[in-house]
Amino acid sequence: MKKSHFGGRRLLAAVLSCVLLLLTACQTASTGVTHLPPTEDAVRAFEAASLPEQALEELSFEADLIELSTLGGVLKIDSVQAGLYTYSFDSLLYDLQEQRFLSSLSFKEAAWQSGLTSNGLYAVDTDKKQLYLFDHSGNLREQRAVETSGVGFLFCAVSEDERLFAYADGSKQAITFLDLTNGSSFDVAFESAPRNVRWFRDGKLRIVTVDSRLETIDLNERTFTNYIDDERVQEISHENGLGETFNNFAFVTEGNTVVYTPIWRADEVVVGIGHGGFATSVLDNETYILRMYDLVQAEAFLWSSPEPIETAVCTEEGRWIAGVGTAMSRKHAVRLCQDTEMTSISIFEEDTVSEPEEPEEEYVYEDEAEPTSQTVLIEVPVIPQNPDYPTGCESVSTVMALRYAGEEVSIDTFVDEYLPKSRDFYIDGGLTYGPSPYEYFIGHPTSDSSFGCMATVIEAALCAYYGNADGIIRNEGLSLEQLCSQYIDQGTPVILWATIAMLEVAPVTSWYLDDGSLFTWPGNEHCMLLVGYDSEQYYFNDPYAGMLVAYPKELAEARYEALGSQSVVILR
Predict the structure, then answer these.
(1) Domain positions in the chain
(2) How far apart are CA 214 and CA 227, in angstroms?
(3) Which single residue of 252, 265, 497, 524 has CA 20 to 30 Å from 212?
(4) Within a 10 A sphere around the Cβ of 32, how many other Cβ atoms?
(5) What is the mean pLDDT of the chain?
(6) Could you tell me the pLDDT band of residue 285, with boundaries at 50, 70 and 90?
(7) Residue 26 pLDDT > 80, yes or no?
(8) Strand positions, DSSP E, 373-524
(9) What pLDDT does 133 receive?
């Protein structure tokens, strides 16, 4: 399944070309520039297309992908028009101030890289190593052939003032900077190959490397610097080092201070980076929500759409534009997010998480359960999950069981070193895809925006902890009565799945798994440690309540069955 992460979209041909270049190592390189007038090859490589007659907010595309970018009040809309055996890469320019279309260009089959400049746009045929410069009206102003010994361009970009052309061609461990005004060049060596450009202006080039580091090249010093150094960051931004951690979005201020903003929910997908903020998309109650985080004003704006939101871009004035699509066809559209349609909410600029919102149906806990003389009870010390692990009931319950089994392990160690975790959500074809809770904990246990995981994940974590599967038993389909007779009566507590306070399951949201199946998260999902029973009740160490609780047998059995009658025990 092709992932369409923000900032990393590429044509398949470009990706294959880059892979080929990574595998090709030429020993020498020569750099030169041939300034050519527009040729017949250029005419065949691209052609001007007619301008749309519709207004921007009415514009739609029959396209495989849409990507948006802005510079100086000009919006660039990129799309791929695919045929049976052919495709074209199309760029459409729109003046946001005058509210009119400026030009439309269609680039024919090749591995193209393109971007805005202050005077128009550039396009590079990375295989033939041809650079084309256009004005805003789509007129070809210059065509240049760059002579190198590399097979093609692994990476290339043109500075916004059109003075420098930067590229790496796989022939050496360096980025070459070519002065388009006089033909001179110089190299800056790199340790990790560039993957994508973020911006190229004011004597600096900011790139993302193949190992997902954000690097800045100072062209005066001709050196690399690591702009953001936070191993938790999963995604790198266009502007100031914005990135996803398991718990938050991180933003690097101009003073290189990292500011953390808690995410609303683990299945938010980053779809756009703005000036001082970012935007995410999430499906909520059959409505797609674009959350536009303004980290300067410490607030967020919500914009809803009946169509999937696949990408977004922010203008220099702080105006958001969204690219929407449909899962039922290849049709996409561009929508202006109007202030009148937005809702403002407060956000927090701290590396912390807020207390979870109370559900409509309250969690009701009596005082700590008082076993009777007829109660069969295993005495296991209770470990509360709050406030440090608001969604970590599975891990905390497991650590309780591990400690009872004689293991001295902390919750942090179990979570950081053994628990499989992921919040790798992405949008493809208008559908939201995400990790399986049967393979990963969705999010991170320290974040209240996370979901959780199922028994197979805890089984895998325990096998990783012990180094083998001996004595790790995962059960499916056994009743609570059977669990008590097989394990509780033998002095072994049981890690099992039910619901918080034995509330009903409330579906929260859905996403597609990589196998194409649709998964719906069971709201109120909870994991506890079954430690005993009597004639009327089952007893649990409840990490959320932070105490021993008891529930009527019929109710507990119903909630346990609603979560798939799944459990894990440690027999060692």
Answers:
(1) 12-187, 228-352, 376-570
(2) 6
(3) 265
(4) 11
(5) 80
(6) confident
(7) no
(8) 376-377, 421-422, 426-428, 431-433, 441-442, 472-476, 494-499, 506-512, 518-523
(9) 95
- How many CB atoms sit inside 10 A of residue 485's CB? 13
Name the CATH superfamily, with its identifier, for domain 376-570.
Cysteine proteinases (3.90.70.10)
Q: Alpha-carbon torsion 77, 78, 80, 81, what sign?
A: positive
The residue written with tokens 């990476």 in the block is 155
Assign residue 393 a region (left: φ > 0; alpha: ψ between -120 and 50; beta: otherwise). alpha
Q: Does the pTM exceed 0.90?
A: no
77-85: list long-range contacts, CB under 8 Å, 24+ apart.
77/323, 77/334, 78/114, 79/332, 80/11, 81/106, 82/330
The answer to whether the CB of 470 falls within 8 A of the CB of 416 is no
Q: Read off the pLDDT of each residue in 295-305 and give the average, rounded to a whole number.
A: 77
Q: How many CB atoms lie within 10 A of CB 406?
A: 8
- The answer to whether the beta carbons of residues 294 and 278 sit under 8 Å apart is no
The residue assigned the tokens 């296991």 is: 380
Token digits of residue 23: 């595998």
The Cα–Cα gap between 528 and 558 comes to 15
User: Residues 6 or more apart from 530 whose CB is under 8 A from it?
Assistant: 480, 483, 484, 488, 493, 494, 495, 496, 538, 539, 540, 567
For residues 150-162, average pLDDT = 87
Angle at which helices 393-404 and 455-466 cross, to 10°: 40
Tell me the pairing of strands 243-244 and 248-252.
antiparallel
The burial of 92, by beta-carbon neighbours within 10 Å (0-12 exposed, 13-18 middle, 19 or more buried), is given as buried
Secondary structure of residue 153 in the 3-state scheme: coil
CB 274, CB 44: distance < 8 Å: no
Give Cα 104 to chain centroid, integer Å: 31
User: Tokens in use for 16?
Assistant: 């294959």
pLDDT tens digits for range 479-518: 999 999 999 999 999 999 999 999 999 877 899 999 999 9
- Per-residue pLDDT of 243-280, as tens digits, reads 555 666 666 555 556 666 677 788 888 788 776 677 88
Q: How far is CA 409 from CA 104, 405, 417, in A?
A: 61, 11, 11
- Count CA atoms within 13 Å of residue 16 on its CB side: 6
Contacts of 326 (CB under 8 A, 6+ apart): 307, 308, 332, 430
Fill in the amino acid letter for 122. Y
pLDDT value, residue 348: 40
